[in-house]
Amino acid sequence: MQSWDRKIEKPSRFKVVLDGGAVLDNETGLVWDLAPDSTPRDWQTASNHCHGGVHPAFRVGFRLPKYDEILTLFDTSVSTPPTLTPGHPFQNISTSDFYWTATPYESDSTKVWTVQFIGAVTLSTKSATNLTWCVRGPGSAN
After folding, report:
1. What is the pLDDT of residue 142?
2. Model pTM?
3. Three-class SS state of 52
């Protein structure tokens, strides 16, 4: 086979990194916890958990994801119900619970957007309890 005749393999979108505890999304440059935390927390406690929690390889810089960041994990080729992108290595993803985002509701500072991995997006008061999925990468911390 000639070198010009070789098929170029597309690299995987996701790569497990940080001693197996996190996932690099090669499409967005974000690094996600491999398994979201399954303890329901209010928004401030969830934010503190991301900022000060023990993360893979003891890395710092984790935060709650922005609304548009967490939506990048959805497979947009499937409409009903939306699912995570094929080939993802994530573990312990709940489809029945909501996950916090760092994106506030502009009309009411006591509320933020939350996402459920069956396609539901809603507002939650910061005093409610939801799950936490921390991310690290470009963008400001919440």
Report:
1. 43
2. 0.85
3. helix
